[in-house]
């Protein structure tokens, strides 16, 4: 086992990072890019482990078995900070804390490493806070930024970073990983990998959660019953409900656990009114949880629309002559019937409507239900 084992279908990236970990071409700032599910953060984590690996032999670094590798993979190493946000954006105060952390010398490893998993979720003024630190880092500090594409990061930042471009791995590689790492039945793993369109994290959730597979199938089948405006409105409401329920299922329990832990840390009384100082901290936690819930619903809704998009992607593949494998292979007969009743031009227009809705929901303050109702009407 090595730290590179989970990077399925990324041979070129692994070779590039291995070489750098061995001391050839190592630089102080890296930008990991690739579509969602390609493993950007996993690649950065593996690279961080290889750089601080305890092995004396350079060629063996990234062993995945030494204390340094294990603690970095477990995100508990004192010299490696992982920064991700469950809110809409990374705040400017959080960026300033990163800069302060980056200025410290490593305490036990070779390098102080800052992994920013959501570099695309920083406003321009927030990113500018990092610019000086990335441009002129302290001698033993390495920055690793992750984003969907280079265009999602300010040009002043990406020009100072070495690019690492990942791609979505083949579905077969994702299925093999699920079988090997998680012990998933091969048939279930294959179906989950196709349904997730090679997104490793989503494939794992689909493989382990039958309810998630059923919710996805319900989403994908919606166009088969879309006959009029009333059906479009009902579909929009149901899509939003599916996305909200999926997001809230993980948020509610976590919110309660966080609040209980905070009250215990503060030494709050078991009953009665909280002191003013404690009320302020609880209020701050609740505000953070609300922001996180908003992002969770937005992300879940975007994924739901991506599942819907896969239906029309398969329809288009059939209309164009079945050049590649279908995502929703189990619906082939229904997809073929649907494809026979329209044209490729119509299918492309419908796919464009879904992508417009996704963009409105993730980048503007539009009410999600209104955006989805408008999209659904375009699909009739």
Description:
It holds the Pfam family DNA_pol3_delta2. This is DNA polymerase-3 subunit delta. One of its GO terms (biological process) is DNA-templated DNA replication. This protein has 380 residues and is of the alpha/beta class. Helices cover 59% and strands 7% of the residues. It is built from 15 helices and five strands. A five-stranded parallel beta sheet has the order 2-3-4-1-5, with helices on both faces. Helix 4 (92-102) links the parallel strand 2 and strand 3 (112-116). Helix 7 (171-182) packs across helix 8. It is globular and about 65 Å long. It starts with 10 loop residues before the first helix and ends with a helix. The mean pLDDT is 85.
Query: Which CATH-level-2 architecture of the largest domain?
Result: 3-Layer(aba) Sandwich
Distance between the termini: 51 Å
What name does CATH use for the topology of the largest domain?
A: Rossmann fold
What strand line-up does the widest sheet have?
A: 2-3-4-1-5
With helices defined by DSSP (H or I, 4 residues minimum), what is the helix count?
Answer: 15
- In terms of structural class, how would the helical and strand content be classed? alpha/beta
Fraction in helix: 55-70%
Mean pLDDT: 85
Counted beta strands: 5
CATH class of the largest domain: Alpha Beta
What shape does the CA trace take?
globular
CA radius of gyration is: 23 Å
Number of domains: 3
Instruction: Tell me the name of the CATH homologous superfamily of the largest domain.
Output: P-loop containing nucleotide triphosphate hydrolases
Largest sheet report: 5 strands, parallel
